[in-house]
Amino acid sequence: MSTLSLAHSRPTPASMGVVMGSAAMAAQPPLHSDDLLQGQKTVSIVHNGSTYRLQATKLGKLILTK
């Protein structure tokens, strides 16, 4: 019997219980928080004319605030 190690794999939206249409999954791969934050603790994101702040906490969680 073989085992599969997932220790180094990143979760996908499907593995996190996120339901997305197949077109959305095929069009854009998931973004990783490291790619967004680029070594910073916070990053600003503009969405529909509003600015949001994505912040990484000391415990490794993400907080998105408007």
Commentary on this structure:
This protein is 17% helix and 26% strand. It has 66 residues and is an alpha+beta fold. The chain has a domain at 32-65: Ribbon (Complement Module, domain 1). A three-stranded antiparallel sheet has the order 1-2-3, with no helix packed on it. β2 and β3 form a beta hairpin. The longest helix is centred in the middle third of the chain and has 6 residues, at 22-27. It is globular, with a radius of gyration of 15 Å.
Quick overview of this protein structure:
This protein is of the alpha+beta class and 66 residues long. It has a domain at 32-65: Complement Module, domain 1.
Structural features:
disordered N terminus; alpha+beta; Complement Module, domain 1; single chain
